[in-house]
Amino acid sequence: YAQKYYVGAYCADQGGKIYLGMFTDDTCTQFADRNAGRSTYRKLTGGLSLPFSDYSMVRSDCVSCNQRDHKEEQYKNNNNANDGEVRISENCKKYM
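Predicted structure:
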């Protein structure tokens, strides 16, 4: 029978980073090779790299959720207007 492979997330040894790896089990505990499955993935896909296998899926720096509209900011700054309203970017709203 054909070998089944699974792609899943795993934590770096020291923590703080999350990568994707290729595994031989559906609980994602046995890497497909000694390179966290990257070599197997590359072989099976004709040379493609497994996304998030060389860099973390999670950023360690904070990203502002405040929506920035440069034209509106310029208008407010020029007219000393401040309505006190803070708008949240659409990208952040979907996670709230």
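Summary: The beta strands are 6-11, 18-23.
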